[in-house]
Amino acid sequence: MKQVELKDIRSLIDHLKNNGVGSRPLRVGIDGSYGIGKSTLAYCLACQLNVAVLSIDQFIFRDGRPYVGQIRPEIKDLCDHYVATRRTFFIEGVCLLAVLEKIGLSVDILIYIRKLDSWGKWRDSELYNGIESETEWTKKISNLPEVLEKQVAEYHFKYRPFNRAHFVYSVTHGD
Fold first, then answer.
1. Regarding predicted confidence, which is higher, 135 or 84?
2. H or E, element range at 81
3. Are 105 and 27 in contact (CB under 8 A)?
4. pLDDT in tens, 72-112
5. Distance (Å, rounded) from C-alpha 100 to C-alpha 59?
């Protein structure tokens, strides 16, 4: 499937329906940076398409370990239940592909949500996209203030979720 970039929810819903969401059991992932609106998007889409939502944040210990290491095993059990009962569901959260790898699950459709500035430029493009060497990457993230921010940046470098997404949904936020 060729990557499709979208800026309005109605178009995203139409594309998801055209790709079988709502008519056959699918696993749909929503990935992006923290605080960008993944949960809001997931619940909005779920209401429109009548599907379940799993939010990774509901399944973390919050014990100081790296984010992916904090994932509680119950999330795998719930995912397995949805798969076994042939239910479509959205799974959303930061570092999604790493979490899915940890629990041995993949998604049929991946949505990446990104934030555009008031000029329409991807706000995190310099951080998350286009850096090829690990040396260049290490220099970029060394000045990041928060541990989670560094983990998310490292995740984006390793997994490249933006490049792997079937749909890129852009939201606009002012500076």
1. 84
2. helix 74-84
3. yes
4. 999 999 999 999 999 999 999 999 999 999 999 999 999 99
5. 13
Q: How many C-alpha atoms does 164 have within 13 Å on its Cβ side?
A: 19
Nearest Cα residue to 54 out of 10, 92, 1, 109: 92
Show the tokens assigned to 56: 């990774």
CA distances from 44 to 10, 90, 106, 159 (A): 11, 11, 22, 26
In this predicted structure, the answer to whether residue 174 has a pLDDT above a threshold of 60 is no
Q: Across the strands, what pairs with 4?
A: 167
* Nearest-10 crossing angle of helices 147-159, 134-141: 160
Alpha carbon distance 42, 88 (integer Å): 13
Rounded-to-integer distance, Cα 109 and Cα 125, Å: 22
Environment class of residue 123 by beta-carbon count within 10 Å: exposed (0-12), middle (13-18) or buried (19+)?
Answer: middle
Q: Which residues pair with 6 in a beta bridge?
A: 169
State pTM to two decimals: 0.86
DSSP state of 39: H
**Predicted pLDDT at 175:** 38
Q: Is there a contact between 100 and 154 (Cβ–Cβ < 8 Å)?
A: no
Residue 32's Cβ-side half-sphere holds a number of Cα atoms within 13 Å equal to: 25
CA 20, 22, 23 angle in degrees (round to 5)?
Answer: 60
